[in-house]
Amino acid sequence: MSRNICITAVDGHTGFTIAELLLTNDDFKQKLGSITGLTLHPNSELVKELSSLGANIIPHKPGRVHDMAQTLRDSGADTLCSIPPAHKNKVDLTTELIDAAKEANVPNVCFLGSAGCDLAERDRQPRLREFIDLETRVLSCKGDAATVTGHSPVVIRAGFYAENLLVYSQQAQTEGILPLPIGKQHKFAPIALGDVSQVAAHVLTGQGEHGFSDKHRGQLIVLTGPMLATGDELATAASKALGQKMKYEDISEAEAKRVLHSQSESDESELQYLIEYYSLVREGKTNYISTTAFHDITGAHPQEPDEFFNVYAAEFKLRNGNKRRKANGK
């Protein structure tokens, strides 16, 4: 039985990467009937690329749950991959979509949340804590006999994306440093976006008697990278991959905000999310890895930090003629 999948926020890197993998990998393609991409930005380059690969693109027009439910019905989707968009109204947009899936009786729902959301404090890390509220919205459908939505749910909590480190490529290329506001002692385990996409693709195309494969259905899947690293250890991994010395610089939260605002094109809410995740690291709440689910679902090993830096070597290597900043700033 082929799977008709609707993926939200395909104008973002997560939604795009999952959709692209499903549309280009032969193992996944043979299990597909169709891919529908829901997007707030139908004219973005990522969306155009997915359209050229065969995805059916539908503009996401927020406003009424009933209208969105009809959009889902018209798409023929039997599966929803719900990815909260990078938007200041992320919670409202995602809540509306979850309710629309419930009204449209979409049986299979995979929600992509964030690792660490359960450890976030509502007053200190509100953007992270929002994911708990959205997970609850998804899972509450399980006990509603009036809809089949929730009968086959999966929640994936993805850890800190290693690709977020690309924001600091300018400092890496010109000064040979990796500046992060995570302190000197505590650790975290960045995960490659491609690894998250692999797990999501396996879940979305898995088949079972009740919808998703019984190996995945009902699972709360926490994903991190395979290596716990301090800032210094992350810089060591980068040095190994790049063949040149990379140093970690512990910066303040204020400096991190300045760097993110000047060097990232992400939505303001997403920048706040990153700052909050860094604060979790400083509080010692990310000193764990969670790779068992990745191994069980994909049969592979997640990407190591040095492999990540090797993939993106061009973005991190010192440019010719540049020397690292001396301690006195001269």
From TrEMBL:
InterPro entries: NAD(P)-bd_dom_sf, NmrA-like, NmrA-like_oxidored. Residues 36-281 form the NmrA-like domain. GO terms for cellular component: nucleus. Gene3D superfamilies: NAD(P)-binding Rossmann-like Domain, UDP-galactose 4-epimerase, domain 1. Keywords: NADP. Belongs to the NmrA-type oxidoreductase family. PANTHER family: NITROGEN METABOLITE REPRESSION PROTEIN NMRA FAMILY MEMBER, NMRA-LIKE DOMAIN-CONTAINING PROTEIN. This is NmrA-like domain-containing protein. It comes from Penicillium oxalicum (strain 114-2 / CGMCC 5302).
